[in-house]
């Protein structure tokens, strides 16, 4: 769903939405075109943090892609279209000829048309015959052998995302509180729709030996048995034609991270509970 842009022949997904994806979702809620926010040097200056609401589950499978499917399908579509258009034109000419032949008092213009319509019908019949032969030829052609692509999907992911110092924070709050989005939200592919709920919170800086979010400081982690740690290398900024910049290593854990000593973190209080987070 959150495809790693560094993978080419395989569609591997990040376990969490990177900052670039979160920025894209914020832009979608506001209705900002991607050409505008990708070329805005201040857009990705916000900081974000993320908490896993449930353990990350992935599903892996192989999907066959046909290399020339789009081009081949277009060729077949155009052949059908030409055949149908030619058939309709021939049918209209035959009907027009029949109408003229039934008319007892023709004008000079109609007489001239009646005299020439037979040639038009014959010409269109030849065009229709060629279109029919072209259809047969195109539909007998096979597509290139399918190319297997390895893909990963996340199974029903849920995240708690915190945003701080967003350029359009005042403008977006009304939309978030009213669950409104200018553009549809989706995760990676358009068939994977996304949803969100606004969470009201308050924050302060505190000293803590625990982290609920990711961290960029692995040296401070006390690695413990029974916990699953994952290292993720992700971009934190996108520019121009979806060019990714400022990559960082994120350490995730399926449970609360224990630190080797007290560290200043963001203590975020919601109606549900308090979270200790590191922002990027």
Automatic annotation (TrEMBL):
In terms of superkingdom, the source organism counts as: Bacteria
Which keywords appear in this protein's UniProt record, sorted alphabetically?
Answer: Antiviral defense
UniProt entry tagged with the keyword RNA-binding: no
GO annotation (BP), single: defense response to virus
Tell me yes or no: is Isomerase among this UniProt entry's keywords: no
The UniProt entry, under InterPro entries, shows:
CRISPR-assoc_prot_Cas5, CRISPR-assoc_prot_Cas5_N
Can you name this protein?
CRISPR-associated protein Cas5
């Amino acid at each position: 769903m959150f495809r790693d842009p560094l993978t080419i022949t395989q569609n591997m997904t990040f376990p969490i939405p990177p900052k670039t994806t979160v920025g894209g979702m914020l832009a979608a809620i506001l209705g900002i075109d991607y050409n505008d926010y990708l070329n805005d040097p201040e857009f990705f200056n916000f900081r974000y943090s993320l908490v896993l609401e449930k353990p990350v589950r992935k599903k892996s499978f192989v999907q066959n892609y046909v290399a020339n499917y789009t081009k081949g399908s277009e060729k077949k579509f155009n052949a059908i279209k030409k055949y149908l258009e030619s058939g309709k034109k021939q049918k209209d000419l035959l009907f027009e000829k029949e109408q003229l032949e039934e008319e007892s008092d023709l004008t000079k213009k109609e007489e001239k048309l009646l005299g020439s319509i037979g040639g038009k019908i014959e010409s269109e019949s030849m065009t229709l015959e060629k279109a029919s032969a072209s259809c047969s030829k195109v539909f007998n052609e096979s597509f290139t052998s399918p190319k297997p692509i390895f893909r990963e999907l996340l199974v029903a992911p849920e995240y708690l995302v915190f945003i701080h110092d967003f350029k359009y924070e005042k403008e977006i709050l009304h939309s978030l509180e009213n669950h409104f989005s200018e553009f549809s939200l989706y995760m990676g592919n358009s068939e994977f729709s996304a949803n969100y709920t606004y969470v009201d919170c308050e924050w302060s800086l505190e000293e803590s030996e625990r982290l609920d979010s990711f961290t960029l400081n692995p040296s401070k982690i006390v690695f413990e048995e029974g916990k699953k740690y994952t290292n993720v290398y992700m971009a934190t900024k996108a520019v121009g034609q979806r060019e990714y910049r400022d990559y960082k290593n994120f350490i995730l854990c399926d449970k609360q991270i224990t630190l080797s000593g007290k560290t200043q973190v963001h203590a975020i209080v919601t109606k549900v509970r308090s979270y200790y987070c590191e922002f990027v």
